[in-house]
Amino acid sequence: MSASKITYNCNPGENNECGQRSAGTGRDVLISLAVGVAVFGLYLLLNGSVFSVPSIRQMVLKKQNARLMEKIEYIGQRTAIQSERLAELEMRDNKVYRPIFGMDELPPEVRSAGYGSESRYDVFQEFPNARLLTESARSQDVMEMRAYLQSLSYDEIEKVAMKIEDMNKFIPSLMPVCPGRDITITSPFGYRLHPIEGYVIFHSGTDIAGPRGTPVYAAADGVVSEVKFNFHGYGNVVDIDHGFGYATRYGHLQSANVERGQKIHRGDQIGTMGSTGRATGPHLHYEVLYNTLQVNPWNYFDKNISPKEYMTLVTPADKLND
């Protein structure tokens, strides 16, 4: 087999000019090809391609989006913490501040309603993290509305507080018996083991034990609404209506020295401690009612008053008509 020959189309007498042109043309092709590849690669790097290679802009946006999502999650965590603190303020507002001033509680449906239509969050549906964005915005709106309502409640309380001197005498803040060594809280407000039946039951008042015949005094100004005897319940009972939604009840009395319709001032003696009705020993069953519902009397007592100070505030039965 004979060797193949490469034939050049150049004239040997042309001083290799043709060869040089051929070599130059080859170099130009290679340079053009390299430049084309570089430009194409740069294009892919900057703009992506059909092969889904992420561009620099896409990578930057992805990092920015990740940082934004971290911030949104952090805001959500802070919102949850602030919501818990706001709930504590709402609880104290409903259970302490408003009842003290004879004001109705703000029900949950009032505190959580009226923050707008759900359609206001439709704008987030076009985003990849629509659910997280929607929940974050909704939580912010709800908390803003709750905070606004709480501020309105404080404004309302402030207005009522301006009249506190007039209202104070109607709030049942005086303990119904003089504190001392012989006086003991034997059963507080709330669930307890029934002393007779032996099962757990809700106790609607506070039991205060002491010697039989211990004077019992009205906790605030008011009008006697009921004087009755219940053999199977609280025995001799006196109920006083104080107005502003408040009432008090005094049970198991040995005797009562007031009558229905009688006007009473704070500290007036209304009876004596006994064990009438269903009782295991001499004590006073004392209740505070606000809007007909029993509330914890302990929240109203002035616990720092001394026996000597207490006795300057009360009027014994034999002095009521003086």
Give the SSE layout.
Layout: H1 17-47, H2 56-100, H3 108-112, H4 130-161, H5 164-168, E1 184-187, E2 190-193, E3 200-203, E4 206-209, E5 215-217, E6 222-230, E7 235-243, E8 246-256, E9 263-264, E10 269-273, E11 283-290, E12 293-295, H6 307-311
Antiparallel strand pairs: 1-4, 2-3, 4-11, 5-10, 6-7, 6-9, 7-8, 8-10, 8-11, 11-12
Helix pairs in contact: 2-4
Q: Which properties best describe this structure?
A:
322 residues, alpha+beta, Glucose Permease (Domain IIA), 3 domains, ten-stranded antiparallel beta sheet, two-stranded antiparallel sheet, 6 helices, 12 strands, 38% helix
Describe this structure in words.
The protein has 322 residues and is an alpha+beta fold. The protein has three domains: 14-47; 56-167, no CATH class; 184-319, Distorted Sandwich (Glucose Permease (Domain IIA)), CATH 2.70.70. The chain has helices spanning 17-47, 56-100, 108-112, 130-161, 164-168, 307-311, and strands at 184-187, 190-193, 200-203, 206-209, 215-217, 222-230, 235-243, 246-256, 263-264, 269-273, 283-290, 293-295. Strands 1, 4, 5, 6, 7, 8, 9, 10, 11 and 12 form a ten-stranded antiparallel β-sheet that branches. A two-stranded antiparallel sheet has the order 2-3. Strand 6 (222-230) and strand 7 form a beta hairpin.
